[in-house]
User: Fold this.
Amino acid sequence: MKLEDMVMVSVDDHIVEPGDLFKNHLPSEWQARAPRMSKDANGADFWIFDGKRAGAIGLNAVVGRPKEEYGCEPAALEQMRGGAYNIDHRIDDMNVNGILSSINFPSVVGFDGSRFMQFADPAEGLRMLQAYNDWHIDEWCGAHPGRNIPCAIVPFWNPEEAAKEIERTAKKGARTISMCDNPTYHGLPSIHNAVYNPMWKALADNNVVISNHIGSGSPAPHASDESPIEAWIVTMPIAIANSAADWLNLKAIRDYNLKVCLSEGGIGWIPYFLERADFTFQQHGAWTHSSFGGMKPSELFRKHFMTCFIDDEFGLHNVDWIGENNISYECDYPHSDCLWPEAPERLYETIKHLPDSQIDKITHENALRFFDYDAFGKLGGRENCTVGALRAMAANVDVTPQSFGGPAPLAPGVEPRPVTSGDILQMFGDVAKADGELEKA
Assistant:
């Protein structure tokens, strides 16, 4: 297979929410209470939710910057590529990167939408969550049919209402929900509690996938505040293994025939994870009373789970150990791991050793099947969906790295030192100080 003949579907990208998000999706009586974007005296954009400031609009939305600026978090929309928050510009950036279709996770409301859980009036939080979904499905995904796979957020803190929202958004075209991987992080019952059964049933009835994104619940651990930040970045994706093990042991997976995608977790660790799961069941199952429905844990995993990768040459040399039907691609636009605008080149170099049938599965077929999404039908056939065809529509897209201001210069005579986990936590702490403050204006 030639590079230009590949078809690429990404199951993990992100949106930086635009300021007019709620404008067209709330009746007049709700407009005064709608979340809104404002700008502070320093020129930073921020959101007001339920009278409180949300301190960051799009952490890590640094695609298109020089790499030296990746640690400089954008404080305003004008410090990002337009594709981070504008759907038409996003399509341009998808075309130049050869991406046919994409699943987009929220930013300012949390990957799992849990900011709506914080509203003082639960009914108001639910109404705003519904408006968010309507914007995402009708405007972001609806503007260019076939290019973005609708991903809903649901009030998992109220499973009965979550079930209703799954039903409602599925009718509008949602193919997945972004679910907190560990609700106990929010003080809620664990996924093993029967309280979530209405959700599981609604997901099964509507063939909707659960997408568990890293950082949506259990935080990725780091060794110490003095550890170089690269040590933390290395292990962030692999931290999803804890959630994978928990969900693999969820009885509801079997009872309701659920589908789970492990988003932004990589694939190279999966072979050992599955080997360890089978070994653990063999050695300990007699006393733990675990059950996988008559299957090995690895067999259950391959039936119900999808994995994805950005750049994982080791994983792509161990496809048989993972399962050729369980691997999909992710781009992670507009975050710093994103390989835009050269994702096809990097992917091709790491996947070209595989037969065409496996390349097709991994680059797009598995994703379109798992999420039950007919992108080809919406766009008039495969010939319009290849890397070559999409890039032909992007000849005028400027991909020149754009600087928005680098880090502050060091004092004379001061040698640079590795950025540490503590440095990043301090930055997050500064954001948290703003997050929750009442608007002063």
